[in-house]
Amino acid sequence: MTGPDSGLRILAHRSAARTIGREISRRRFLSFAAAASSVGLLAACAPTAAATSKAPQATGGPLEQKLSIFTWGDYDAPEVLEEFTATVGPKITVSSFSSNEEMVAKLVGARGTSGYDIVVPTGPFVQPMADHGLLEPLNHDLIPNLKHMDPEFLGRTFDPDNQYSICKAWGTTGFVYDTEVIQRELTDWNDFIDAAQNEASGKTSLLDDPAELTGLYFWANGIDWNTTNPDDLDAAEAFLVNELAPHLSAFDSNPGSGAIPQGTQALIQAFNGDARLGILETTSRPERWKWVLGSPATELWMDNWAIPAGAPSPEAAHAFINWVLEPENALAEVDYIGYHTGEADIRAAAEEAGVEMLDLIFFDPDQLATMHEGELTSAQERIVQIATKVKAAAGA
Amino acid sequence: MRKHSGILLALPAWLWLVCFFVVPVAIVVVFSFGEKPDIFSTHSLEHLSFDRYAEVFTPAFFTTFLNTLWIGLAGTAICLVIGMPVAYWMAVKVRPERRGLLVALVMVPFWTNFLVRTIGWQILLAPEGWLSTLAQGIGLPAFEILNTRQAVLLGVVYNYLPLMILPLFVAFDRVSGPLREASADLGAPKWTTFFRITLPLAQPGIIAGVLLVYIPLMGDYITATVLGGAKGNMVGQLVAGQFQTALNWSLGSAMAVVLIGIILVSVAIGAGIVWLVTLPARNRNRLVLGPAEPAAARSVTVPAVVEGAGA
Amino acid sequence: MSRPSTRSLSDRAFGVWGVLVLIFLFLPIAVVIASSFNVGRLLVSWDHFGFDSFLALFLKPAVRDAVLVSVWTGLIAALVATLLGALAGLAMARHPGRWQLWLLGLLLLVSVTPEIVDAVSLLPWMVTLGQDAGIAVFNDGIVRLVIGHSLFSVAVVAYLVRARLVGLDAKLEEASADLYATPVTTFRRVTLPLAMPAVLAGFLLSFTLSLDNTVIAAFVSVSGSTPWPVYVLSALRSGLRPEIAAVSTIMLVLTLAALALVAYVLKRAGDSAADIARTMSGG
User: Fold this and answer.
1) pLDDT surpassing 80 at residue C42
2) Which among A259, A257, A284 has a CA at the least distance from the CA of A273?
3) Residue A219 phi, psi dihedral angles, 5° rounding
4) Which of B219, B253, C111 is nearest to A17 (CA)?
5) pTM of the model
6) Residue C42's closest chain A neighbor by CA?
7) Where do the domains of chain B lie, and which CATH numbers do they carry?
8) How far is B289 from chain C (nearest CA, A)?
9) Rg of chain B's alpha carbons, rounded to an integer?
10) What is the chain C residue with the closest CA to A20?
11) pLDDT band at B43; cut points 50, 70, 90
C-alpha cells in the first residue's frame, strides 16, 4: 500500500470515485431537496401546526427506567439526582451544553432522535422552539409541586401558561477576577474590558454563549442588548473582533467546575451561581477571587425545564420536574448551583439553612433594576456570526 | 467467472462504504452550495451559489485555515525530525531480539485513547498543577503554555509521533543490513551510506509516515479542543462549531470542502517538491527497488550497488 | 559475521535519543495512570491516594453504561468490519482485475478524509434515513455508532487481509482445486485458515479502533447509548473527575490485552517485528 506505483494510480481514480459519488448524490439530491424543502415548509407553517394543541405525551403511566437530561454545565446538585434514582427509580444521565444555540442545534439536527428527555432552554428560546415543534407540552397534572412555586416566576411573558416550560433557575451575569493578578478594583464591564486588554491579556475567558459574548459590548456602552440596529451590531463586531479577541484565552460557559478552582485564567466572565460554585470549590487561596455584578447593565435570564419532542421517557421527565420542585430539593439545588430557583420563600429558607455567599444568589431591587431580560430578535443570526468570528479571531 | 466472483465478494464492503461514506460526504458537498434561511433551519438548497465559499475565504475564517496549515506543516516536520532518529535506531542499531519490545513500547501510547492521552497533557501543563508547582519550586516560571497554539503543537506532535515512527521503522527495516555493509565495505562513510543508500530506499516509508501524520493532523479536532482554548483554534473546531452551535450546515460544509481541498493541494505540492528534489539523485543512482522478497533483492543488489557507486 | 562490541559515540547518542523519546511518549499515560489513584473532586488537583476512583466503574451507572456501550459497540463494529473487510481483501488478493481500482480508490478515500468531515456528514444522513425515509433502525444509538466506527475499520481489515494473502502462494488453492475440492470447500479449508491470522488481527484492531473512536461518536451518538470517549468529552466541559483516569486505565489494560493477542497471533503465523509494526500502523 505504500509503493509509489499504487499511489499514482489511486490519484487518478479518486476523481472517478468522486464522479460516482456525485452521480449517486444527484438522485439523492433530488430526494433530499424534497426533504429539505419540506422541512423548510414545516418550519414556515409551524406556528399554525402548533396551534392545533398537541396533547401532552405523558399521562401518568408507569415510569420508564432511564432519564436523560440535557442541561447547562454542573447545574444540578448531585444529591438531588441520586435521591431521585434511589427514591423514584429512573437512572439519570446528564449531558451538558454551553449555549442555547448548541442545544437548539442538537435538537434540530437530531429531529426527535436526540434521546434527551429534559432540556433546559433560557426564556427567549422557549416559544420559538415550541413553534418549531421541538418541545412537548407539559402535563401539569403530573407536577403537583407547582404549588410551591412563587407565582412571580410562573407565567412569564415568554410562556404565559407554562405550557412548555417551568422555571428552573434565574440569574445574572458578571465576572470574577483574581486580585493577585489584577491589583486594582474593578467595578463594571468597562473595567473588565480594560483589564482584559492590560493586566489580564491572554488570561481572560468569556462565556461560550453568543448572547453574553456580544452582550458584553452593549452593556458596557449603554446600548440595549436586544438591539437590531445594524450600526450597533457592526460596532460590536468591530470592537470585539479587533480590540478584545486577541486578548482572550478561553471561551467557557462553566468556569466554576474547572477554570476558577484551577486558576487557569485571571479574569472570567461568569454566571453568578457558577462563579459562587467555583469560589467555594477553590482549595488554594479562595480569597483571591472577587465577584463583580455586571454594570451599568447586565442580563436577567431564566432557565426552564422543558421536554423535547420525541423524548423517550416523558413520564420519568414529569416525575423528575415534580421532584425538583419539592421544597427540600429546591433548597438543596439553591445551595449547590447558587441560583434562585423560583420557589416561594426560598430566600428565607436559604438564610435559615446557612447557605453560603447569599449575596451571589439573591439580589436587592436596585441591582435587579439593572438586569434586563434577553429576547430572540431578528439579529440572532448576526449575533451568532459575530461570536463565531470572535472565536476565530481569538485563535489567530 | 473469476473476475465476477471477485466483484461479488467485494460488493458488500463497497456498498457499505458508498452508502455510509460516499453518499453523506457527497451530500455535504452539495450542502456547501446552499444557504441558511432562518434561525431554526439548518440549510436550504433553494438558491445554489458559491456564497458560502466566499464567506470561508474572508479574513475572519481564513486565518484559521492558515493557522491549521501552519500547525499541520510544523507538526509533521517536527514529528519527522524527532521520529526519524528513533526509527533508525530501532531498525538498525538495536539488537534484533529487542526490536519487538521497542515496537510494542512505541505502540502502547498509540493505542491508548487519543482523548485520554491529550487530557494527560492537560494535567501536565496545568498552570496550577503539580508539575508547574514543581517547576516553580526550582525557579522556573509557572507554566503558561496551556490554551495556546504552542500547546496544540506539542499535543499533535505527541499524538501523531507513533504514526511517524512505525512506518519509518518498517521502511528502514526493509533496507537490508548487507546493503549497508556493502556500502561501508566500499569505503563510504556512515553519512554517505545514510543519504545515498538508506534514505532513498526508505523513501516510500517516509512518504507513508508523512502522509499518515499530516492528513489526520489537518483535520484534528480533539487536541485543539483539549489543549488549545481560544488561541489554538483549528479548522476542525470551526466546522464542528457550524454544525453544533451556529446551525449553519451550508457554511460548515463549505469549510469542510475547503479543508479537504487544502489537504489535497498541499499534498500535491509536497509530492511535486519531493519529485523535483530527488530528480538529480534518481538519475545518478539508478537503484532498482525489487519486490519485497529477500532472496530476489539480495541477488539483484550487488551489481546495482556497483553500478550506483561507479556512476 | 559479528559486529565489533564497542559502541561508538553516535550509537550511544541514538540510544539516548530513543530512550528520551520513549519517555516523552509515556509521560502523559503515566500521569493518567497515576491520576487514577487520586481520590478527590478534580482530576488535576491531587487530593490523596486511594482506590476509590476505580470503584466508580461499578458504582456510577453513567460510567458503567458508557463503558458497556463502548465494549458492545466495539464488538459488533469489529464483527461487521471484519466480515466486509475480509471479503474485500480476499477479493482483491485472489481475484485481481481492473475492477479493484474502484474499491482501492474508495478505501483510500476513506483513509484520507479527515474524521471531522465523516462525523458532520454522517449525522444528517442518519437522521434523514431514520426520520425522513422512516427506516427506524437508524434512530438506534448502537446502530449509528456501529456504522460510524466501521468505516475506517473496513479499510484497515481489507488492507491487512489483502497484504497477507498476496504474500502467500495461490498455488495451495490451485492444488486444492486440482484435488476436486469445490470452491466453497477450498475457501473453507485452505484460504480461510491461511488468512486467519490477518482476519483475527483485523478483528482485534477494529475493536481497538472502535473503542478509541471519539469524533464520529460525538456527533452521531444518541443520548442513552453514549460511548465512553463521548462521556469523557462531555466531562471535559463540566469538570474532569479522577474516575475518568481510573476507567481509562482499565480500558488501556483492555486494549493492551487485545493488542498482545494480535501480536501473539501474528508472531505464531511467522511475522517479524517489522511486519507486525506495519500491520499495527494500518498498513
Assistant:
1) no
2) A257
3) -65, -40
4) C111
5) 0.80
6) A258
7) 28-285 (1.10.3720.10)
8) 17
9) 24
10) C102
11) confident
**Rounded mean pLDDT, B102-129:** 84
Residue B176 has pLDDT above 80, yes or no: no
Q: Does the CB of A257 have a partner CB in chain B at under 8 Å?
A: no
Which cell is C23 given?
519517555
Do residue C132 and residue A116 have CB atoms under 8 angstroms apart? no
Domains defined along chain C, listed by start: 59-280 (1.10.3720.10)
**Exposure of C75 by Cβ count < 10 A (0-12 exposed, 13-18 middle, 19+ buried)?**
middle
Residue of A14, A281, A283 lying closest to C105 (CB–CB): A14
Contact criterion met (CB below 8 Å) for A171 and A273? yes
User: A17: which chain B residues are within 8 Å (Cβ-Cβ)?
Assistant: 22
* Cβ separation A9–C101 shorter than 8 A: yes
- Rounded average pLDDT over B244-248: 84
Output the CA torsion C122→C126→C127→C132 (10° steps).
Answer: 130
Measured between CB atoms, does C123 come within 8 Å of chain B? yes
Chain B positions touching A250 (Cβ under 8 A) are 147, 229-230
As given in the structure block, the three cell numbers for residue A229 are: 440596529
Q: Give the neighbours of chain B: at least 3 Cβ pairs within 8 Å.
A: A, C
Which of B48, B19, B18, B68 has the alpha carbon at shortest distance from B250? B48
User: How would residue C278 be classed by pLDDT, with cut points 50, 70 and 90?
Assistant: low
Q: Which three cell numbers stand for residue A287?
A: 480569597
- Over the stretch C101-143, which tens digit does the pLDDT of each residue have? 888 888 888 877 888 999 999 988 988 888 888 888 888 889 9
pLDDT one-digit tens code per residue, C220-269: 888 888 899 988 888 887 777 888 888 888 888 887 887 788 778 777 77
Q: Which residues of C touch B234 (CB under 8 A)?
A: none
Of A327-331, C65-69, C106-110, the range with the lowest mean pLDDT is C106-110
The CA distances from residue B54 to A66, A166, B57, in Å, are 46, 43, 5
> Residue A122's pLDDT band (boundaries 50, 70, 90)?
very high
**All domains in chain A, ordered by first residue:** 66-170+301-363 (3.40.190.10), 171-300+372-394 (3.40.190.10)
Number of cross-chain residue pairs from A and B with Cβ atoms under 8 Å apart: 150
